[in-house]
Amino acid sequence: MATKIILDCDPGHDDAVAILLALASPDEIDLLGLTVVGGNVGLQSTVTNALRTTLLANREELPVYAGCPRPIMQPMVTAEHVHGDSGLDTASGELLAVPQTKVQTAHAVNMIIDTVRSHEPETVTLVATGPLTNIATAIAMAPDIVERLQQIVIMGGAFHEPGNITPAAEFNIYVDPHAARSVFECGANIVVFGLDVTHQMLISSARLEAIKNHAGRVGKAVADFLDFFNQYDMSKYGWDGAPLHDPCTIAWLIEPEIFNGRDMAVTVDSNDGPNLGRTVADWYQVTDRKPNAKVMTGGDSDRLFSLVVERLSQL
Q1: Phi and psi dihedrals of 149, rounded to 5?
Q2: Are 62 and 92 in contact (CB under 8 A)?
Q3: In total, how many domains does the chain have?
Q4: Nearest Cα to 5, choosing from 155, 157, 103, 119?
Q5: Hey, is 133 helix, strand or coil?
Q6: How far is CA 139 from CA 192, 293, 298, in A?
Q7: Which of 5, 35, 149, 257 could form a disulfide with 108 if both were Cys (CB 3.0 to 4.6 A apart)?
Q8: pLDDT at 167
Q9: CATH code of the domain containing 70
C-alpha cells in the first residue's frame, strides 16, 4: 500500500526533484498535497516554484498550499546565492512555465492539521524538505496530531559533517531553529537525512547527463535546473556536483534499502551564538536521553540516482 504523505517544502531545485520523484512513484507514494514554506527564497517564489513543478509533471490538479512566510522568532534567511533569484533558476536562463492553476485558499498549517485528523491514525507521513515552521506551528495549534502521525521524515541537520550555512548549522534547521527544536522534541517517530548522508549524493557530470538523456520527457528540464544548482557547490567546495539533498527523503520511502542509519537522541541549539541551529546527536549514548530520531548516516549514491532517472522517465 502506498504511503500517504504531505510534502512540506520550499522549492528550491532539490525540492522540485523530490516532488517529481514522489509524483512518479504512485505505487509507493500517495502524495496528498504540497504545503509550502518560505526558505530557499521567499514564500511567494517557493509557492510559484511548487506550481511550476506540478505543471512540469502534468499534475496541475495536485493541491498546493501556502504556509508560513517567515520563521517563528528570528529574521528570515534565504538562499538566492545557491538557488538564484527565482529559487529555481536554470543554466539556460529559461525558467519553468507557471501554470494557470492557483494556490489553495486554505493555509498550509490548517491543511496539515485537517488532513492528519481526517485520516486513520498512523497513516499519514509528513515529509519536510524545508524549514520546519509549518510543521511546528501545526503541532503547536493541534498537538493531538503528533500521536496520529505515522512519522515525520526530515531533510535537515548536520552531525559529524560541518554546516552549510554556518560552520555549525545546516540551512533548513538554521532558518528556524526554534521550530526545529520543537519538532524534534514533539515525540513523533522522526527520520532525519542530514548533510552527513546527503553530501554523499553528488550530482556528478555523468549523473546529470543521465538525467538529461534518460529521464524521459522531463529529463532535459530537470538537468537544466540542476546544472544551475551544481554551480555554487562546485565552486565553493570543489566537488563534482552539488548534493541532491531533498529527494533522499522520498527515495527512502520508496526504497529504504538505499540508506542506513541508527537511532539517536537529537537536540537542536536554539540559543543565539555561533552554534545557533546546530543539531547535536548522541552517537554513542553517552547521555541518558532516549533516542528521538533515526539519523541516516550513509547510502548508496548510485542506487539513488538510478532510482531518480528510472522514476522520472515515467512522468
Answers
A1: -75, 145
A2: no
A3: 1
A4: 119
A5: helix
A6: 18, 17, 30
A7: 35
A8: 97
A9: 3.90.245.10
What are 186-244's pLDDT values in tens digits?
999 999 999 999 999 999 999 999 999 999 999 999 999 999 999 999 999 999 999 99
**Vertex 160: Cα angle to 157 and 166 (nearest 5):** 55
C-alpha cell, 196: 552527513
Tell me the C-alpha distance between 69 and 40, whole Å.
11
Is the pTM higher than 0.90? The answer reads yes
Rounded Cα–Cα distance for residues 313 and 210 (Å): 11
Report, as an integer, the average pLDDT of 10-26: 98
Full domain range(s) for residue 178: 3-312
Q: What is the per-residue pLDDT for 18?
A: 98
Place of cell 547527463: 209
| Residue 137 burial by Cβ neighbours in a 10 Å radius (0-12, 13-18, 19+) | buried
**How many other CB atoms are found less than 10 A from the CB of residue 208?**
22
Active-site residues, by number, are 245
Q: How far is CA 279 from the centre of its chain?
A: 16
- Here the cell at position 156 is 535537515
* C-beta of residue 201 within 8 angstroms of C-beta of residue 155: no
* pLDDT band at residue 250 using 50, 70 and 90 as cut-offs: very high
For 217-251, the three-class secondary structure string (H helix, E strand, C coil) is: HHHHHHHHHHHHHHHHHHHHHCCCCCECCCHHHHH
DSSP string for residues in 28-80:
TEEEEEEEE-SSSS-HHHHHHHHHHHHHHTT-TTS-EEE--SS-SSS-----H
Rounded Cα gap, residues 264 and 294, in angstroms: 6
